[in-house]
Here is the input.
Amino acid sequence: SLVKREVIDRFDHKHLNADTAEFAGLNPSVENIARTIWDLLVAKVAPARLRRVRVWETAKTYAEYSA
Here is the structure.
């Protein structure tokens, strides 16, 4: 439910540059999307620990972020 609320509802079916504050001045590359999702979730999963965020662009292309 956390991912749905913080990520899916925020970014799904949106023009990321035009419709979201997070990407108004940031290129929505798969790497930047992964980092942005990390930033949205890392504090909200406590006391659990977020290990990584992986965003798939295609069946063979993805970016992964972990701090």
